[in-house]
Amino acid sequence: MTTALTMWADQPFALIPVKSLRSSSPMALFMSQDMANAHNNLLRALNSVYNQAPYVTNEADKRDLLQYTAFWVDWIEHHHHGEEEVLFPAVTRVTGKESLMAHNIEQHEAFLPGLHALKDYVTACLDTAKPDVVFASQRYREIVDSFAHILSEHLADEIVTLTGLEVCEAGDAAKLKEAYAEFDAKMREGDKSILYPLVMGSSDAGFEGGGALWPAVPPPVRYLIHYVFERKHRSVWRFLPSDTWGKRKVVAFGPSADHE
Ligand SMILES: [Fe+2]
């Protein structure tokens, strides 16, 4: 049996290497690094709850796990809508290559049924009008297993597409920069009491040796998030892998964990 400390959120769904990314286009490299960091946060947040699910027994804790999962599904849907509505069309316009983002959109379609099944399951479990639908960790993980490998493959493949944008002419960099800024601004939209704690708490300050905590925000912002925005759903954030500063937390629910 593994101990709680060995099942941290860098597994089972593989994270994406960032420091080794290369591109001849500085703008393509910036986009691919930023996107890979965002994808890694999405993956850590999923890994964290997936690993803890079998050890959640108390009803209040189960509701927090379900609520966390509902927030995570909304986050990843928001991410992919932003890509399909803003970033991918801009890349297609700039490169003139219709097919460039097509594979990524196909992959979105491939994992959507599983993602929706997870959303339906957690919504039903949280619905007090449906007392016959109750959380079972085995069922929960079966649903995640039905799509998470396709999802993680997509999250990695998208980075390969972005580094490949080195084919763009130099003059296109400014247009891509503008499109990425628009996408980034869209990613920051939403309920600050949900999105900000999720993003900060799924970072890893020590990833690949440390030195580049993502997202880069002014120090006071993390204090604001920790002391203000995390308050509303504080018990839900026990399932996050890290604290607001990207420091790995001791897993709250595991074979040898003391529940907070
Ligand atoms: Fe993405």
Automatic annotation (TrEMBL):
Coiled coil: none
InterPro entries (alphabetical): Dimeric_xanthone_biosynth, Hemerythrin-like
Lineage: superkingdom: Eukaryota
Listed Gene3D superfamilies: nmb1532 protein domain like (1.20.120.520)
Hemerythrin-like domain span: 34-158
Name by which UniProt lists this protein: Hemerythrin-like domain-containing protein
Organism of origin: Apodospora peruviana
